[in-house]
Amino acid sequence: SRARMLASRSTARPTFAAARRADADRPSSSHTAVKPRRIQPPRATKRATAGARTTSSSATRGGSSNLRRGWRRESARPCLASATSVVMPTFDPSSQSSFPATAVTHVAFDVDVDFDEKVISGTATASVKVQSESSTLVLDTRDLHIERVQLDGADLTFSIGETHPVMGAPLVIELGKQMEKDSSFDVVITYRTSPSSSAVQWLRPEQTAGGKHPYLFTQCQAIHARSLFPCQDTPGSKMTYRAKVTAPKPLTALMSAIPIGKPADAGDGKSSFEFKQDVPIPPYLLALAVGNVEAVDIGPRSKVWSEPEVVQAGAFEFSETEDFLKAAEQVAGPYVWGRYDLLLLPPSFPYGGMENPCLTFVTPTLLAGDRSQAHVVAHEIAHSWSGNLVTNKTWEHFWLNEGFTVFIERKIMNKMYGKSVFDFNAIGGLMELKETVARLGTNHPHTVLKPELAGGVDPDDVFSKVPYEKGFAFLVYLEHMTRGDGDGPEHADAANGTPEFAEFLIEHFQRHQYATVESDDFKATYTARFPEASAQVDWDAWLTKPGMPPVDIGQYYDGGSSEASAELARKWHLCDVLGMGGEGTRPEGASADDIKDFSSMQVDHFLLSLIEYRGGSHAFSVGVVKSLDELYKLSEFKNSEIRCKWLQLRLAAGDTGAFEPTKDMLRSQGRMKFLRPLYRSLSKSKAEGGKKFAEETFTGARNMYHPIAEKMVAADLGM
Asked: What are phi and psi of 698, to 5 degrees?
């Protein structure tokens, strides 16, 4: 997805560069006129008699129809009882839990992984602190089968509310007495997941690099942890955890935590693995992977884990990890997580990376062979402070996670590679923000930096480039204002910023470490430190108004590093302004030497600039696209970023020869950053049969995609 330019602006020159990071993969609404989905709060279902148990293997798809059809008695164990209405809490519109009145502070897991049934089952022991007197504990669930709940060895009565289309069903646990404020207790919940859990992807052996063993991995952001275990699935609720995971031999289990000891023989052809996470995390950062993996050391505190067939390639690609970590500590303060390992996942992983603490998940599409994509790791490392250490209180303040992370990421790149790389990526990010706003609409509520999610809006539908790039732009602006010379571009240096703001950034993470923040918290601390600068900031316009930032943030960047690739794109644009050029049409003097000295980043930016000019309805002719390929051999590039952009240009031109290569890319990986623009480009191609080909390709490939990716692509295609 890239910016469009009107034909009347045929001589305009894009000077923006590509920002290639994991954040470009986050889901966002693909429709310009979509209204936010608002759904009424759920009603509680009828509860069955005590000791009942479902007769169906799909007992509670988060409290589904089987619960309403009735239950079969099997024991005297109390399970479900008469219903009372569930009151929607107001702390987080994306959670039905009782947080913060009763807060889960620690969870101990003892679970078994069953690849045959595609379920994870066992117990989760939740340690709960009572912050307001209460006789109930309410947890979020979706597609979970709750079998038993106990307190001090005694069975508790519980009920499961009616399923909410976005939020699942609340698990309401009757504690049997009024719990006093500041008291605490532990509840043991016996449960199992469903094969349809949105947090878990189960891979068949043929879907892995080795082809011999199954594999599973989880993805809980934003509100999918509730389909992995019963929890208070809000980023405001932070917890520590311990875990014992039993899995079939010879597979290895990994988690977003520190391993304890060595694997133990669990009998029946299984091994058990233990983990601890002593730094409080929100539920969405709990992660599990099980597969035939091995590790290679890439630094004093880092390993790369992957299947044996690709682990060495991962070790080469991510060899700069320790340098990124050291640069990040200079920007944000001490690294508190101990380990920073990476897990290189199979191709169906839907994102570029996921910042699971101690174990970042990354996509194999980063294996470019030249480390050109490895700076995705810089983004995920930055999350060790913004998002993981200091977390947005609710998803309405997501920019505090992602805007800060992009800011730190680019400061890391500045320290390692210099100002030109910072500006190159910052300008590219601004370009992508412009495209997103243009696609959604300048008045669309999802272009607000602090969106409203009340009434059942799915956070997945809201996520886009906005919290990343508009949030980053806001921080660049706030830092520039600390110079004390107004908001003009004079002497602007966004890459190096000001010493005062650099100190403030570290103080921000130290002040709020292990906690959560919202936009007003950040405003208050910034104002206290920089009262004169804050008085000049239109906070309301930045946080609550839709569209582009209220300030032209591009004036703070130096576009010199992207001039060569941008100028070449402009020449190609002008040689076929009307989109009618025949075969052989090309700029005067064009030759293969034009890009022979370009880095992968510059080739990528050249294509991104072409897409800005010609990626929409005013596309190149097929003849010009063929000339581009004849000169620059663009179809021979293996870099995934370049492949995707080149295919978009071909599809926009109506080149039917691009159909099969596009299908190959769509069937070989599941990263949403590539899936969504390619499916949209296919569907909108000038070539006859593009939409049908897109739908047929998706129908054949959808089972290999992660549930999140499948959902978002289906929405893009209207399927």
From this structure: -65, -40
Question: Each residue of 224-233: pLDDT tens digit?
Answer: 999 999 999 9
Cβ neighbours of residue 135 under 8 Å, at least 6 residues apart? 174, 175, 176, 177, 178, 179
What is the band of 559 on the pLDDT scale with cuts at 50, 70, 90? confident
Range in 208-217, 380-389, 429-438, 623-632 with the lowest mean pLDDT: 429-438
Q: Which of 162, 307, 355, 380 is catalytic?
A: 380
* Residue 199 tokens, joined: 């947090």
Edge-to-edge, what's the strand order for the sheet holding 252-255? Answer: 200-203, 215-218, 288-291, 252-255
Which residues does residue 190 pair with via DSSP β-bridges, in sequence order?
Answer: 123, 148
Q: Over the chain, what is the mean pLDDT?
A: 88
The question of whether 679 is a catalytic residue gets the answer: no
Helix (H) and strand (E) counts for the chain? Answer: 21, 24
* Confidence at residue 368, expressed as pLDDT on a 0 to 100 scale: 86
Active-site choice (468, 526, 613, 632): 468
* Beta-carbon count within 10 A of 76 CB: 8
Q: What is the pTM of this model?
A: 0.86
- Is 97 within 8 Å of 233 (Cβ atoms)? yes
Coil, helix or strand for 719?
A: coil
- Residue 468 per-residue DSSP state: I
380 labelled catalytic: yes
- Inter-residue contact 379 to 21 (CB < 8 Å): yes
Planar angle of CA 159, 162, 167, nearest 5 degrees:
105
Reported in sequence order, the residue ranges of 166-231 that DSSP labels E, i.e. its strands, are 169-179, 184-193, 200-203, 215-218
Residue 659 to residue 434: CA distance in whole angstroms: 28
Helix (H) or strand (E) holding 267: strand 258-267
Q: Phi, psi at residue 641, to the nearest 5°? A: -65, -45
Do 421 and 415 meet the contact criterion of CB atoms below 8 Å apart?
Answer: no
Whose CA is closest to 345, among 299, 307, 288, 312? 307
DSSP secondary structure string for all residues of 83-96: --PPPPPSS-TT--
Encode pLDDT of 117-165 as tens digits: 999 999 999 999 999 999 999 999 999 999 999 999 999 999 999 999 9
Instruction: Give the pLDDT confidence score for residue 33 in this predicted structure.
Output: 34
Distance separating alpha carbons of residues 548 and 546, to the nearest angstrom: 7
Tell me what pLDDT residue 476 has.
97
3-state helix, strand, coil in the chain (%, to 5): 40, 20, 40
Structure tokens at 460: 């997945």
